[in-house]
Amino acid sequence: SPHSPPCVPTPGVPVPTHPISQQLQLTEEEKRLLAQEGVTLPHTLPLTQAEERILKKVRRKIRNKQSAQDSRRRRKEYLDGLESRAAACSAQNQELRKKVQELEQRNGSLLRQLQALIKQTSNKAAQTGTCVLV
């Protein structure tokens, strides 16, 4: 009826704080770890304090495992990046060494040409000077 009396708790009967028969949702990894530890949890909530502790421990293990995997992945990416940079620097170093060698050869060639020109001009100057003096 529209005017039914409000629900009054029965004295001595505890009022549930969780909805009755709420399902406990576990991931496959959580189920696997619980089984590995030989623990079975009820499929409905609420859990006892001991069951809550076990579930928290299992979830912490999963988080730690994921964190370790992430750390290894980041370290591998970092090392791959360093190896790639080292290879690029090594290739550039080889190119620069080759360039230095080419420039040193060119410089030596130009130096010999310059010395030959100086020798020629000094010989001509000496000849010209001799002619003038005579």
Automatic annotation (TrEMBL):
<keyword id="KW-0812">Transmembrane</keyword>
<feature type="region of interest" description="Disordered">
    <location>
        <begin position="60"/>
        <end position="79"/>
    </location>
</feature>
<keyword id="KW-0735">Signal-anchor</keyword>
<dbReference type="GO" id="GO:0000981">
    <property type="term" value="F:DNA-binding transcription factor activity, RNA polymerase II-specific"/>
</dbReference>
<keyword id="KW-0256">Endoplasmic reticulum</keyword>
<dbReference type="InterPro" id="IPR051381">
    <property type="entry name" value="CREB_ATF_subfamily"/>
</dbReference>
<keyword id="KW-0175">Coiled coil</keyword>
<dbReference type="GO" id="GO:0000978">
    <property type="term" value="F:RNA polymerase II cis-regulatory region sequence-specific DNA binding"/>
</dbReference>
<comment type="similarity">
    <text>Belongs to the bZIP family. ATF subfamily.</text>
</comment>
<protein>
    <recommendedName>
        <fullName>Cyclic AMP-responsive element-binding protein 3-like protein 4</fullName>
    </recommendedName>
</protein>
<keyword id="KW-0238">DNA-binding</keyword>
<dbReference type="GO" id="GO:0005634">
    <property type="term" value="C:nucleus"/>
</dbReference>
<keyword id="KW-1133">Transmembrane helix</keyword>
<dbReference type="Pfam" id="PF00170">
    <property type="entry name" value="bZIP_1"/>
</dbReference>
<keyword id="KW-0325">Glycoprotein</keyword>
<dbReference type="InterPro" id="IPR046347">
    <property type="entry name" value="bZIP_sf"/>
</dbReference>
<keyword id="KW-0472">Membrane</keyword>
<dbReference type="InterPro" id="IPR004827">
    <property type="entry name" value="bZIP"/>
</dbReference>
<dbReference type="GO" id="GO:0005789">
    <property type="term" value="C:endoplasmic reticulum membrane"/>
</dbReference>
<feature type="coiled-coil region">
    <location>
        <begin position="79"/>
        <end position="120"/>
    </location>
</feature>
<keyword id="KW-0804">Transcription</keyword>
<keyword id="KW-0805">Transcription regulation</keyword>
<keyword id="KW-0539">Nucleus</keyword>
<keyword id="KW-0010">Activator</keyword>
<feature type="domain" description="BZIP">
    <location>
        <begin position="54"/>
        <end position="117"/>
    </location>
</feature>
